[in-house]
Amino acid sequence: xxxxxxxxxxxxxxxxxxxxxxxxxxxxxxxxxxxxxxxxxxxxxxxxxxxxxxxxxxxxxxxxxxxxxxxxxxxxxxxxxxxxxxxxxxxxxxxxxxxxxxxxxxxxxxxxxxxxxxxxxxxxxxxxxxxxxxxxxxxxxxxxxxxxxxxxxxxxxxxxxxxxxxxxxxxxxxxxxxxxxxxxxxxxxxxxxxxxxxxxxxxxxxxxx
Amino acid sequence: xxxxxxxxxxxxxxxxxxxxxxxxxxxxxxxxxxxxxxxxxxxxxxxxxxxxxxxxxxxxxxxxxxxxxxxxxxxxxxxxxxxxxxxxxxxxxxxx
Lengths: 209, 96
Fold this sequence. Notes:
The complex is a heterodimer of chains A (209) and B (96).
Chain A: E1 9-16, H1 24-36, E2 40-42, H2 52-63, E3 64-70, E4 76-77, E5 84-85, H3 88-102, E6 108-113, H4 118-122, E7 132-133, H5 138-148, E8 149-151, H6 158-179, H7 187-208
Parallel strand pairs in A: 1-2, 1-3, 3-6, 6-7
Antiparallel strand pairs in A: 4-5
Helix pairs in contact in A: 1-5, 1-6, 1-7, 2-3, 6-7
Chain B: E1 5-7, H1 14-21, H2 25-29, E2 34-38, E3 44-47, E4 56-58, H3 61-71, E5 77-80, E6 93-94
Parallel strand pairs in B: 2-5
Antiparallel strand pairs in B: 2-3, 3-4, 5-6
């Protein structure tokens, strides 16, 4: 069987986060922080559902040099027919872990959590891999992103990243309205937020000159 | 704490980033900052980044800033400096 060569985008980050309105603020923080660091976040929004979805997700992870898995939102989904936890995110983390095991130089994954030591209970297979703890705060997400991604030049400060976050938070309402969307977890809205974040970074740089 | 990674890829420009996201020109024009620039004939243009043509051309800078706010109330407005008494040239930008 012919092996498919996967192009790995060196500045792409697969962002594995819950698509829930209660996670909205931290979602914006991840977008602002990653874009400010000169990285390109990628998400599963817009991927088709069905049997091929899994292949698409695996392909998306493989095409990204890094992945971030935020497991802070661990809870039961009480919607009928059964109250169950949702396993999609840990499953996608598993795909990334295996991809890195098979291709160590091509992928690096990071786990983010809200509470220290909780992951020892919720996902004990990861014992020995320390998660980044953001404590459910925007400043925590930005700090931890800055801790794991280092630029030798132009490393942004947390207040600078916070300013980008504030800009896209402020603009999110008009982006939603322009897209005719009702929540932020849509592919078009995601792209617009990323672009707006890059624009905010460039504006801040121009004003600093 | 996980070991940090060193990022060596260049930071993309807004235009490059827009291309990678696959955004159309029309979509880009509705996003990002707005620039208020002085034109060579002395009037003022309101322009989106990457746009070849000005959105509006008006006689005064104040009017241009007002029109920029009307076009996109939430956007960051960057005004080209027209005085150089602070030692900063025309290529510098300020908030309105």
